[in-house]
Amino acid sequence: MAPKNLSFKIILGSSSMARRKILADMGYDFTVMTADIDEKSIRKENAEELVVALAEAKADAIMSRLETTEQLEENTHPTLLITADTIFFGYILPTSIGIEVAVYQGIIREKPSSKDEARQFIKSYSGGQATVVGSVVVTNLTKGIRKGAWERSEVYFHEIPDEVIDSLIEEGIILNVAGGLMLEHPLTLPFVDTVVKSNLVGFHIHGIKEY
């Protein structure tokens, strides 16, 4: 199958296998570059602002490694840089109560710092709920225009067995994803009860900020 994007080039600014698969399944041809940024140094008051700021920071870091804007403008085909970020809010069902949901709000969960923290994250989702906030930022490197959007989803889980959690941690992939959880992972997906998505909220930045 011929790639859809014959008139423009795509750079995916992410090492995420899930994001690569999405673009590949949609029929796009692309190259991959990753951004080396200190995500912990970027802090915002709310989740939506944070995921947007992180996606933009990744784009700026990758841009600094590419050719100058003048050189890109000479290219016959426009080049689009796609960056993204995802975080989790944890909502936990305490075992001491059982019949009620106690919501621990305001706790932003990014990539787990250790296997122990990953285990703690996943066990807290078991039989409970999490809020997922994600962003996508597309930067036209040729025209110097950036657009993006964020989305919030409520995810409800069945009980996740300890042996499944052990397998996820042993595999290691979940140590590199926000909240220590991949909803589309074959081991995780059977324990996802319901996903309730909000409307996609878009934003438009007319110029690329300095980097």
From TrEMBL:
Q: From which domain of life does this come?
A: Eukaryota
Q: Which GO terms describe its molecular function?
A: nucleoside triphosphate diphosphatase activity
**Ranges in a coiled coil:** none
Output the InterPro entries linked to this UniProt entry.
ITPase-like_fam, Maf-like
Family annotation (Pfam families): Maf
UniProt cross-references to Gene3D superfamilies, sorted A to Z:
3.90.950.10
- Keywords in alphabetical order: Hydrolase
Q: What is this protein called?
A: Maf-like protein DDB_G0281937 isoform X2
What is the species listed in this Swiss-Prot or TrEMBL entry? Nicotiana tabacum
- Gene name, please? LOC107766389
